[in-house]
Amino acid sequence: MEKRTDATRASRQDLQRRLAPKPNPKPPPKKSRGGRIVRALVGFLIVVFVMFVGIGCGFLTASMNTKDHLVEDIRPPASSHIYDINGNEIANVHAAENREPVKLSQIPQNLQNAFVAVEDNRFYEHMGIDPRGILRAVYANVTGRMISEGGSTITQQLAKNAYLTQDRTIKRKIQEVFLALQIERQYTKQEILELYLNQIYFGQGAYGVQAAAQTYFGKNVEELDLNECAMLAGIPKSPNYYSPFNNFNAAQERKGIVLDQMEKYGYINHASARKASEEKPKLVNHKQEKDSTGAYFIDYITQKVIDKYGADAIYKEGLKIYTTIDMTMQKAAEEAAHELPVQRTDGNGIQQPQMALVAIDPHTGYIKAMVGGRGTDQFNRATMAERQPGSSFKPFVFAAALEENYSPDTIIDDSPIKIGDWSPKNYSGNYSGKVTLRTVARYSLNVPTVKIAQKLGIEKPIYYAQEMGITTFVLDGERSDRNFATALGGLTKGVTPLEMTSAYGTFANKGIHVEPVAIVKILDRNGKVLEQAELKQKSVIKESSAASLTSMLQDVVQHGTGTHANIGRPAAGKTGTTDNYHDAWFVGYTPDLVAGVWVGNDDNTSLGMMTGGMAPAEIWKAFMQKVVAGTPAKNFDGVSYTPGNVSEIKDEKAVKEEKASDKKEKNAKDAKGTAPSNAGGKASSTDSSAKQPASVPTQQPSPPAADGGPEPGGSVSKGRD
Question: In the annotation, is 695 catalytic?
Answer without folding.
Answer: no
